[in-house]
Hints:
Helix content: over 70%
Order of helices and strands: HHHH
Strand content: under 5%
Radius of gyration: 19 Å
Amino acid sequence: MRIVSRMASLQLMIAMLALVVMGSVTVMDVFLKYAVSRPIPGAYDLVESLLPVVIFNGLPTTLLRRQNIVIDLIDHMAGERGTRRLITVADAVMLGMLVMIVWAMIAPAFQAWEYGDRKLELGLPLFVIWAGAMIGMAGSVLVAVTMLFHRSAKP
Length: 155
């Protein structure tokens, strides 16, 4: 569990760094556009390319801390034991959904690799973006597996 926690923390730091870069580039781009009429070339592509890094690398920590959105309509009626079962079912469903998302990402990632697609202004290969998303999803799947089999789930 400790290794998974550290991996999720590392991915969260990567997501935070990407978010800071996104915000800074956006602010500087707007400032330079209106101050000196010279926006940053490729700013849109950079921000767009960093968005999957933020999303997919922030997800493992969210899952590990159980900070995903939860609607507890029947938890109070199920009792503590029933709530633990519901959490286990939710963990299994989450793992299944994450695996399906990874499965759906594989074909487009390989197509980006095969065709050599690139971002228009930056020239960044799209496969690099897909690879970053896949690494983030691998962390999410690992956390979901850990949460499914780790029995200290909080009701």
